[in-house]
Amino acid sequence: MNCEQATRLLSDGQERELSFKEKAALKIHVLMCSGCSNFAQQMHVLRDFAQLYTQGGRDDDKK
Amino acid sequence: MNATPTTLDREENVEAFNLVDPVLLKELRVQMLKFAVLQLSDQQLAEDAVQDALVGALKNAASFNRKAALKTWVFAILKNKIVDILRKRIRLKETTGFSTDGEGEEGQNSLFDKKGFWQKEERPGAWAQPMEAVKKDHFWLVFDTCLNELPASQARVFMMREFIELDSTEICESLDMTTSNLHVLLYRSRLRLRDCLEKHWFIKGDRS
């Protein structure tokens, strides 16, 4: 598995349940690759950002 | 485009209207409209949806003494309105006729080398304290700019998926596209958005 395939699966993982095989291959790749490991975390962060975007997270009176 | 919604002047809304800072209201309306136009690709429908959402929200404006609360509330109403309109489109099998061809391929290819591994310069770094960033106004300006830089088809599916929280099936039906096309578009939008945020906000971390 290369980084392009790994990131595609990390994005798809937000849309569907990955197969056991996919998950296993992904896990091995991410363990060895810091770029894809960061990318994996950022997929969740992007989702959090999007939720805050429409939930008043952009307001300046937020403490 | 008229910045002062006429319906708001109706008697029953006057009182609620007065409770909300007009400058804030204007800003809010601009943000809402931008969001709705992107989702609906129809200026008139978008203006109507925003109008309805604002009027609906302002009826209860007295209970919103915090700006954030009002904004959360109007966006929630707007999201519901947009979802209703999109679902109606699905039922009518109305196609919006936009294709996924050729958009954003170049940008993606330059991220990876020929073997599909990260180009050295493009390898994602660690983001320092992303949940601190969201407290800063400037961060959201960067976020908006990055969203605006996505090709329209990518921005649209990203917003439908992540802002309106429609699921894949609903988006595919609404836009008459296959699941695999949708997933490719979402993938590209995420690649680009994270790249843009990293380059323009997050200090490039350790790439070793």
Any idea what the radius of gyration of chain A is? 15 Å
Euclidean distance between termini CA atoms of chain B: 51 Å
Quick one: which chains have the greatest interface?
A-B, 39 and 43 residues
Per CATH, which architecture of the largest domain in chain B?
A: Orthogonal Bundle
Structural class of chain A: mainly alpha
SSE pattern of chain A: HHH
* Shape descriptor of chain A: globular
Instruction: Give the termini distance of chain A in whole angstroms.
Output: 43 Å
Helix content of chain A: 55-70%
Order of helices and strands of chain B: HHHHHHHHHH
Percent in strands of chain A = under 5%
The total tally of domains of chain B equals 2
Number of strands of chain B: 0
Q: From the structure provided, what is the oligomeric state, counting identical versus distinct chains?
A: heterodimer
Would you give an account of this structure?
The complex is a heterodimer of chains A (63) and B (208). Chain A is mainly alpha-helical and 63 residues long. Helices cover 68% and strands 0% of the residues of chain A. Chain A contains 3 helices and no strands. In chain A, helix 1 runs parallel beside helix 3 (34-53). Chain A starts with a helix and ends in a 10-residue tail after the last helix. The model of chain A is unreliable at 57-63 (pLDDT under 50). Helices cover 63% and strands 0% of the residues of chain B. Chain B is built from 10 helices and no strands. The longest helix of chain B has 26 residues, at 67-92. Chain B is flat and about 55 Å long. The interface between A and B is large, with 39 and 43 residues.
Strand and helix layout:
The complex is a heterodimer of chains A (63) and B (208).
Chain A: H1 3-12, H2 20-32, H3 34-53
Chain B: H1 11-18, H2 22-40, H3 43-58, H4 67-92, H5 105-109, H6 130-133, H7 137-149, H8 152-162, H9 168-175, H10 179-200
Helix pairs in contact in B: 2-3, 2-4, 3-4, 4-9, 7-10, 8-10
